[in-house]
Amino acid sequence: xxxxxxxxxxxxxxxxxxxxxxxxxxxxxxxxxxxxxxxxxxxxxxxxxxxxxxxxxxxxxxxxxxxxxxxxxxxxxxxxxxxxxxxxxxxxxxxxxxxxxxxxxxxxxxxxxxxxxxxxxxxxxxxxxxxxxxxxxxxxxxxxxxxxxxxxxxxxxxxxxxxxxxxxxxxxxxxxxxxxxxxxxxxxxxxxxxxxxxxxxxxxxxxxxxxxxxxxxxxxxxxxxxxxxxxxxxxxxxxxxxxxxxxxxxxxxxxxxxxxxxxxxxxxxxxxxxxxxxxxxxxxxxxxxxxxxxxxxxxxxxxxxxxxxxxxxxxxxxxxxxxxxxxxxxxxxxxxxxxxxxxxxxxxxxxxxxxxxxxxxxxxxxxxxxxxxxxxxxxxxxxxxxxxxxxxxxxxxxxxxxxxxxxxxxxxxxxxxxxxxxxxxxxxxxxxxxxxxxxxxxxxxxxxxxxxxxxxxxxxxxxxxxxxxxxxxxxxxxxxxxxxxxxxxxxxxxxxxxxxxxxxxxxxxxxxxxxxxxxxxxxxxxxxxxxxxx
Length: 534
Hints:
alpha/beta, FAD/NAD(P)-binding domain, five-stranded parallel β-sheet, 15 helices, 27% helix, FAD/NAD-bd_sf, L-aspartate oxidase activity, NadB, FAD-dependent oxidoreductase
């Protein structure tokens, strides 16, 4: 067995893991970063989800390094893609002109930018990336993690990694059970949290749906995939609250739960610069084609793209049949989620009602080359909800809900390590619940949510912080995950520099102020200006 060591081990190379590694590396520390899929970047890349961001993202409310990622994506398009002069001159270039985000783009571009951000540290030898590796075991001495065992996805010898600080940036909080760290899953009870939207009793196996995304374009010819083995099951599948079959254009509106019908118009020929990508004004999901479009062909020179490219992360691919965390049949559910997505594609190609009276869009073509998945889908499932550490601070619905807080804004924390904003956006769950969609105030990220109650050198750095099932729905999105990872990495570096512990930093006013000063120096915003939630 091979053993390696560094100042910090970051397990999981999604957005939180990359941000954590960069923070440690900027502080002069050595890092081992692991990732189980072929691409770094998690929900932005291997999961193929365009960035869900708040309305002020172009001006404030994200960290400087996250802004560098966004700027790098736009610069990559300008440097390498055949943009029209009009698109090239667009300061806030939205390559896909999708309605969900001001920066909808192809996943591979984010991979290239992330790799460029990390490249100098790889070259210097201070960063070692183990890919594709995932954690399979850990050694613990009391309240300290002493080693993590890592296995290659395709087999072979294990690697043992040793570091003074271990950061769990996995998509599902995988290190928490491996290290015996206390955590929760699913719905907490209203008696435990006091949250208006919580159930009367805890439901630990009731979790948000996972989704396997995929990319499509629409070109001449018949590109129909083979009929999936489970197509008949999914074709007849109808959740009781859905208002129709899952494979239909009808579904609940997340904000009102009214049954609405979405439109679908491939290549509508709309003006990319007129797309209003602002979820405060419009959720943008009226026309599913443009909702999460990642390449608008009219942004590129004639002939460069035969079609727009749309990213399918739509209501009908949400997998509701069971959770994929802490269950013995997780692999079966993940395989079934992939079957659901292929069934949705087959339905779109063969049976989807067309607004001209016909059925099916055989010209829809699966673009696995865009997502990098061997079966044409995204490499990884989109995981909305992780195991969540039992932390010193747990953020609850009443801390940020507009309905509860009113004009007071979200709770302000003395130990803020960043900011975020998104509606509490819970997709239908494995326990049979409909959407929960709650207006939020712009919120802060408390340091206490990043510190386990007991463990002294393990830090959460992804969606596994001290939120509840409900507030995870606001804290799980791209810029917040990045900020969480960056704060966790900076905390580990600060503790190493000062020979102290995360618990001591939070408890000591002077240490906390010094740590927060380091964050601000590095471009982390700790407070919001006077803006109102939505």
